């Protein structure tokens, strides 16, 4: 039999921007795959890390996943994303990513795409999905630490879901937090205030998000700042929380327990390694809550923490959304694979 030609679609960042994928579409795709995860309709392995000999400039994350509910017989994908904090000094994003999609029935590659936007919005959407099920519906004050990478998606998606009356943002560099606040003011009517410290951002906040870009563990989100009824999302690569943070929490939720235990990075790495967070002390994985297997928020005064590390299945779900739209619009460049 003559071997048939194999073509794949390449989608640049520009191609993807032209598709104008909406915020509601992103949140719906992420919530859908989280639900699939809760129902056992996904397959993935925890991320692995590649740390080059580059003087500590950064590292790569390799994520692999399959979602059975996408397309006729599911979709598989692999994403490689760099995490290079000093990139801003060269005018580059700190996170650059590439996604490859495969037909799980034949192994045929279907697409290669810039996954930088996917990485940003899927993280913000996961924060939003967690908040939808775990934060108080009447949350008014958002305190956000971190101004780059996923920060914009975090804040704008939370602002879309909650009746916020104030958004407070901060970061290490004054020019960075002021620029972030100015950018937010162009897309929201909610008052945005750039503050000098994390303590100011988190004071009396209903939703506390820690998305800092630390090089060494430093407590920015202090346990004393978490008031009754608060929803807390710490997900920086390097820990910015105190070790006793979990002591005041009524519920701790993660995206996936295997993912939480893997690797050398993560906001609650020390809590897992020292036994402060275990499978027994965990309330649920977020998929169990979204799919209805376990309850989310049950009382207004519950302090709830959601730690999400970034599941590969989110990348696959958003890549599927992008690829489907690109095929319909005949966008991108077709490349002969063999």
Automatic annotation (TrEMBL):
The gene is ocd. The lineage of its organism: Bacteria, Bacillati, Actinomycetota, Actinomycetes, Micromonosporales. This is Ornithine cyclodeaminase. It comes from Actinoplanes palleronii. It comes from the Bacteria.
